[in-house]
Write a structure and sequence with these properties.
CATH architecture of the domain at 11-130: 3-Layer(aba) Sandwich
Distance between the termini: 24 Å
Radius of gyration: 15 Å
Strand order of the largest sheet: 1-2-3-4-5-7-6
Order of helices and strands: EHHHEEEHEHEE
Structural class: alpha+beta
Oligomer: single chain
Shape: globular
Number of helices: 5
Length: 174
Amino acid sequence: MRCDLNLDAGFALRPADSSDAPRIALWMAQPHVQRWWLQDWSVERWAQEIEQQAAGVHSAPCVASVDAEEFGYVELYRVRHDQLAEYYAYEENDWGMHVAIGDVTRVGHGLGRRLLRSLADALLDADPSCSRVVAEPDLENTPSVRAFGAAGFEASGELQLPDKKALLMVRRRQ
């Protein structure tokens, strides 16, 4: 898994590493993130999580920036390697994403939908075998659901996951 996607609109991703743990822990403690991610962990726990993800094949932990300013945390993953695969009829090459805008000053200004669109476009461009990018925001997370919709994702049914009732959002190759 890699974070080396060609994003547009001034966005960039870079691989997260354990040195990012203090910033990611701070972002995850922000009320607008903590409520939905439930990962208000210590710096040490985040360092372990990032190292574990970076060493495996399941997901890629990334730090997102716009115009060279870091503002969020992104996990990109192959659905077939994820627990999500147990809950919907996934296709072999589906990509999934988790996105948290940690910088509270960046919330509510349309940045999320622009990032989501850029990420989905980049994943589809980078992987010709992939025809869908998915996400599973909490059904009650209205701002996130709206952002995915504005980024071209379509609601594709509700999922009862172990930790939440989610809305499967799907962005298909055009």
